[in-house]
Design goal:
By secondary structure, this protein is mainly α. It has one domain: MetI-like (MetI-like fold, Orthogonal Bundle), CATH 1.10.3720. Helices cover 70% and strands 0% of the residues. It has 13 helices and no strands. The longest helix has 37 residues. The model has no long low-confidence stretch (mean pLDDT 77).
């Protein structure tokens, strides 16, 4: 007859441990995290070891296709015969219309696009969480006033707002963080406000208020930790949205300027050459598409792992 296990030896799992176990059981989310980490790591570290600088032009190798060992000779046709030096010089993605190595340009573009995505999302996260939590917890007229301000900002065309910033402050790289982050926080604020309204009437909030805990402390210690689940899920969906916005602005010529580049800039340059030199569009578009898919798969995995109805 088996003996019962002592109660002190039984270890429970917290909600975060259970969510982590469910997340790592999601194969698509885990594979996406590995792929995304690989793209980010190569984009950050790769340019330091690659022999071709990202801004150096090789005028004898303008618009050269990738070498034969990638198996794309048939796709690029007779263009390979025009640049025989591309194989020997290690341009594994070929060169662009200015003779610059496309591989290093894609890595630098990934570094810029991911940086804008993460930093702008962080700005939206800080502003949106604090704004939404304050509006939802305080309530009353202040809540109505704060959310009407959000509605007004929602009504403003985003592209006009960015054009005004570019005209006033110039085409500055840091302006991208400010412009995108200053708009993306609106949806974050609405999500946090809705979650706060559902939490503020819970018993532990009333107990904290009865104990004399200040409003700021209640928001910081009780409200924010309980809304972090939906916020994390939305963050994983905001990063690809920001990358798409940056790409759209760069596509219009309002984003990153030379000598820096981004995936949006490379796609904008490649679409003009897509019929004659398709590799200029193919490689940055593939990197960007894979990154966006990874973020969406991770977001789906986090949503399933943090959903209390699925526990």
């Amino acid at each position: 007859m088996a003996t019962a296990q002592p109660l002190q030896d039984i270890k429970g799992r917290s909600l975060w441990q259970d969510a982590r176990r469910r997340l790592f059981a999601n194969k698509a989310a885990v594979a996406s995290m590995l792929v995304l980490f690989s793209i980010g790591f190569v984009s950050v570290v790769g340019p330091s070891f690659w022999p071709h600088p990202f801004d150096e032009a090789y005028f004898d190798r303008i618009s050269c296709p990738p070498p034969d060992y990638l198996g794309m000779t048939a796709l690029f046709g007779s263009q390979a015969e025009l640049c025989p030096t591309a194989v020997g010089q290690g341009h594994i993605f070929g060169t662009d219309a200015n003779g610059r190595d496309l591989f290093i340009r894609v890595l630098m573009g990934g570094r810029v696009s991911l940086a804008i995505g993460f930093v702008a999302t962080f700005v939206a996260l800080v502003i949106g969480v604090l704004y939404g939590a304050t509006a939802g917890f305080v309530g009353g007229r202040l809540d109505n006033l704060m959310m009407r301000f959000v509605d007004i900002l929602y009504a403003l065309p985003f592209i006009f707002f960015v054009i005004i910033l570019v005209v006033v402050f110039g085409n500055n790289f840091l302006l991208m963080f400010v412009a995108i982050g200053a708009v993306e926080w609106l949806t974050m604020a609405r999500i946090v406000r809705g979650q706060t309204l559902s939490i503020k009437r819970k018993e532990f909030i009333e107990a904290a208020e009865a104990s004399g805990v200040s409003t700021a402390a209640i928001i910081r210690r009780h409200i924010l930790p309980n809304v972090v689940g939906p916020v994390i899920v939305y963050v994983t969906l905001t990063v690809p949205a920001v990358i798409l916005i940056e790409s759209f602005l760069s596509f219009l010529g309002l984003g990153v300027q030379e000598p820096f580049t981004s995936w949006g800039v490379l796609i904008a340059d490649g679409k003009d050459q897509m019929e004659s030199y398709p590799w200029m569009l193919t490689f940055p578009a593939v990197f960007m598409a894979v990154t966006l898919f990874c973020f969406n798969f991770i977001g789906d995995g986090l949503r399933d792992a943090l959903d209390p109805k699925d526990r």
